[in-house]
Design brief:
By secondary structure, the chain is of the alpha/beta class. 29% of the residues lie in helices and 24% in strands. α3 links the parallel β8 and β9.
Length: 297
Amino acid sequence: MIPFPQSRPVRRLLAAGAACAVAVALAGCGTSISVTTKGQAEGPVLAVGVSEDAPGMGWVHNATYQGFEVTVAEYVGKVLGYSEKQIEYTSVTPATLPGLVADGTVELAVAAYPVTDATSENVTFAGPYLSVQDDLLVRNDSGDQVASLDDMDGRTACAVDGSVSGDLLRAEVPGVTIETESTYAKCVSALLTGMADAVVAGAPIVYGLAEQAGADYAKVLEKPFGVENYGIAVKKGRTELADQVDTALKSMIDDGSWQAAVDEMTAFTGYVPDSKLDPPQVSAGDATATADASSGD
C-alpha cells in the first residue's frame, strides 16, 4: 500500500506535449488574457489549482503534481502561452476551490469540480474536460454487506466537503448517512478504520483511491450512478479566458492528446471512461454564449 502524500507546495516541471501548435487559433503562442504575475524568474506565472490526493486524477507523488488533470492543465497552459516552468500548482479541494478562484490565488482550477447550477453561481466554467459517473470505495473484507447501492441503506458513506457526490448517492439511497471530511485521504482513513462503510466520489477518483489503498484493503463497488461534468473553473465573469480554455480543450481532444492522457490514467487506475459520456463535447465560445444568455443580451 502506497502512503498518501503529504501536502506541500511544489511546482511540477514535466513535459506538457506539443500544444503550442494549437495556439494558432488563439492568435499565436500566447494569450490576450491578463494573468497575475507572481515572479519574474521564469516570466509571468500561471497559477493553477489541482487536487493533491486523487491518484490518477490529481495528486502529489515523488514531490510533483501528477495525473490526468495536471496533464490537462499543462496542455491548456501551453496553449495560453506558458512554459512548464511558468505553471505553478496549488492544492485545492471542492470546498476551497471557489474562494481561491475568486480571490485570484489561482487563475484556473482543474480539480474534479462539477458544472452545476449551484457551482456556476461562484465561478465561470470552461469545458467539461471529463464526464463521469460516481461509484463507491468499500472495504475488501465487507463481503456481502455492501454488494449493491441498496446495501448502503442505513449505512454511512464519506464524501469530501464541497462535492456533490453525497447528494448523488442520497438521491439513489435516501436512507444513507453522509459524513464529510476535508480530503479523500481522510475519507479513506474513515473507511479503513470502520468509521464509514464506503467512500463516495467520481468513479476515476474511486478507482485511483482503490489502487493506492491496495487490493487487500479496498475495492471499487462497480455500481456507477449519477453523472458529473468536470469543468475548468475561472473567476466569475472571465468569459474570454474561459473561451480560450475551451479552445484549448477542444484542440486537446481533436489532436489525440486528451485520449493519450486518459490512457495513462487508465493504465494507473484501471478506470475506463464511459464512451457514452466521453470524450466530452466542448465548443469554443460556450462561456460567452452562456453569459450572454444569462444576462439577456
